[in-house]
Amino acid sequence: MFATLISLVVAALTVLFSLHENFKEDPLITNTLTLVPIFLLFALAFIWAIAFNTFQKAEQNLTPRVLQLVKHDGHLKLYAAGLILVSFLAFFISLNPTVIEYFTNIPRFTTLPWIAFWIILIGMGFDFLYLTIKRIYDYINPFSVLTFFTQAAKQSVNADREIDMCNWVESLSEIAVKSLNRSSNSLCLQSLNEMRDVLRIFLDSSKSIAHQTQDKQSLSEGITDRVSYTLFYFLDRFSLIFHTALDKKIEPVCSSIVTTLGKVAVDAANCDLSLVSHPVRFIGDFCREAEEHKMKEVPIKGSITLVEASRAIINDVDYTYQDLIDPFLSVISQLNEMAKESFRENKNLSIKMLMQPLVDLKTIFQSDKLASHRDTPALQAAVNNVLAEWETLDSVLRTMPPIPIPATPEEG
What we know:
The protein is mostly helical. Helices cover 77% and strands 0% of the residues.
């Protein structure tokens, strides 16, 4: 509010030194008092006229919902309303003093305090004008637009408007896909972070008694389990982004999606342990597809992610009276299938290396925190059975003689 501060200083100096007390006798001052408020109003109209070009470009480059975002932008409405209000007040002060005396019932109207008030209003008007320009041009920056969509989604979560939240998340995923088509990986990664943040807040709010189990929008769409529906909605959008990155062979984005899903698994565990198996299954599917596309780093990142997500769940989630069989059997199954896929792609891989994530998981199951849980023996038995199969395979491969590779006859 720099202009407002300057106007306060100027207004104070005007009052202290009685500057231009008889301003009505000075045509320059009279015209200035009248024209400046009119200029501010015309400037606001001009800025909004050229702003539509900015919004149109953002709509083409990012998502069509940008205009819907502008429509619901409370900041733009506030700045415009503030500018219009102070401009009309300043214009009212610029009228003939007898008119103001009639409306204010102030006998022998004194001009000096009103000049000071006019100066302050004009300073506020220029600040509102600056804030309007700044807010409009924020729509040029795609990272700012991501933040706006995230804020709108969070507001929908707080208002129990699930369908609105899904629409805003759809816009985030659309920006991520378009950014991949333009090779803007950083924008895509930021979109993933924003989506995960919205999902985390939704899952946290689902545990709160202050939020309804079923909102009106969900009921109107026939959605009975809003938490599962929303989780799968997010996972479907993550899948769309992953397969776009996979087709374009953008390995860093694929790895980041796998890591993000690991965080989603932990967030889901804090809400309900029965939800964990869904992101875990997506992690396994993504890693196997990446292996088929010769992306070697993604399966490694996926194995580490599943192990660390399991560790975080064991350490941070209260599972005293909850079932651990379903989520952790899913983790064991996906780690086993990922190891099998890696071995199918490369028979020269060390069996011990393929077993290592399962060994780490076994160590987690042997922790003191799990010792008293009723499901611990079943989990330990399950991971031991899988490890025994790999150890058997390792023993067989060690006893087998090397398979001779027939020499290729020389051409020519």
